[in-house]
Amino acid sequence: MRVSMIGTGYVGLVSGACFSEFGHEVVCVDKDPSKIERLLRGEIPIYEPGLDDLVARNVKAGRLSFTLDLAEGVNDADAVFIAVGTPSRRGDGHADLSYVYGAAREIADCMDGYTVVVNKSTVPVGTGDEVARILREARPDAEFDVVSNPEFLREGSAIEDFMRPDRVVIGTERARAQEVMRQLYRPLYLIETPLVFTGRRTSELIKYAANTFLATKITFINEVAELCEKVGADVQDVARGIGLDGRIGRKFLHAGPGYGGSCFPKDTRALVHTARDYGSPLRIVETVIDINDSRKRRMADKVIAACEGSVAGKTVGILGLTFKPNTDDMREAPSLDIVPALLGAGATVRVFDPEGMGEARKLLNQPQILWCDGPYDVMEAADALVILTEWNQFRALDLDRVKSLMATPVMVDLRNVYKPEDTRKAGFVYHSVGR
User: Fold this and answer.
1) Taking residues 178-188, what's their average pLDDT?
2) What pLDDT, on a 0 to 100 scale, did the predictor assign at position 166?
3) Which of 99, 224, 245, 360 has its CA 20 to 30 A from that of 120?
4) Per the residue annotation, which of 18, 28, 263, 307 is the catalytic one?
């Protein structure tokens, strides 16, 4: 089948490459000339493990191409995916749908024959209705259906999530559109992936409900971690003890500095605003947002407390800046709250991240930050070492070497990477989360 993917951001590029791996002919379209030029040169504008090889293989096979010309991508396409950004709108937290609606208007001008227009972007309930209205208003005689097909890709494991998903959610009650979507995802039949067909509005809500529930789960265990510190319990054992209950599950029960990234913060806010608009407020989700925002700020206080109540004139080493490992994504990362708070308290901060340094420099452009070349550079003459992102290369540090490099052997492990007994045996004053 012929597929057009409008938008070559994280979702669009990964989805387009994976569809081409399925054997479909995919054209990825973007308005950003520099991004398309890079892709045409074989350069991947985002960091995602395995994506460079996947793109190169399918470009070479002639199944994947890139263009600035939307008409070239949409003409003769069986399915046109809208995979543009839906960031939080400034001032009110609603999802900004201007890119989605703009794409719909341009698609309307280029549709040729029956076309399934698929919302892959994360959008509030009712967005598909408005996209259908825009298309119909522009092309009264066109044959098309609008489908919701939300993505459930985790940064760092997105290719595996696409190729072996827990489920594929497809929002349409139109038989013709359902058949097109079945053919697009036909390779997943072999591994018996559930295709969940729902109404379009239900599909749109499933995406927000899923992300919001996961954010709630993270926030819950973070609150439990604070209680564990007060009563002398171990949050990791608590998480294991409740996670083995099949009704709860073990995933997303890892205490840390709070959730971040491109999805959870904006999706929780957008769902809260949608619920308020419909007169059905989600009090639990509102509380989750408040707790998560305050938790990030409190993590800086935790570091300061570990430094005997003051970091003024001291050096703090930070390992990891991205919101999670195996990505270069800095959006809503806890580091964006923690590092400025430490600087504001008078610290000099030394930082290193395996993939996020470029983007972090744009967002944390302060003279008191020293950008280091590797993890051990961070530790030189540091009064405290903070593990902020659990990259694999930070999991087996030479603790003797770390101690020898630091001015004061204080470690604040915000991801519970190390065992307290091991670090204390090595001579560190060790602080973790919920233990």
Assistant:
1) 97
2) 96
3) 360
4) 263
